[in-house]
Structures are given as C-alpha cells and as structure tokens.
Input
Amino acid sequence: MPDYHFYKKGKHVVAIERQEEHETLQYLQQGYEKQFEEIRSASQQDALKRFADIRKGDRIDQRNFLAGAGEMPLIGVLTAIATYLLTKKWS
Output
C-alpha cells in the first residue's frame, strides 16, 4: 500500500502518493500547504476519507477541551465557596 501526503488550499484537499514528488512542487506553487499527516492506504479515496476522519476527530477534541476549560473555573469557585462555608460552620 502506498503512503499519501496531503496538501490543502482553503477547503480543497489533495492526496498525493509519496512516489509522485513531481506533483508536490506544482501544488505548492499553486498555494497549497502541506499537511503533516501521512497515511498508508490502498487508494487515494480511502486516504482522503481517513484524512477527513482524523480532522473531524481533531475538531471534536478541540470543542470538548474548550467546553471543559469553560466549566473548570466555575467548579473551582464553587469548591472554594463550599470549603469556606464548611470551615465557617465548624469553627
């Protein structure tokens, strides 16, 4: 199975086999940016599907992280208030 590299320009993504290095220069000159993912796949279509799955997972992870980052300060404040009230009650 060949290895594929990915090049992206806007929303358009192209998968290029590692052996086809001559195409790489053409895409770079057209303004495409090389992506760091490399995938071994049976076909170009399968490689593009896998790339889309990886990117979708990255977006989901980022959203989940941001959602958790927003809630953590609230949990910290509530814990501090509860600790203060319990400490005051036992004093």
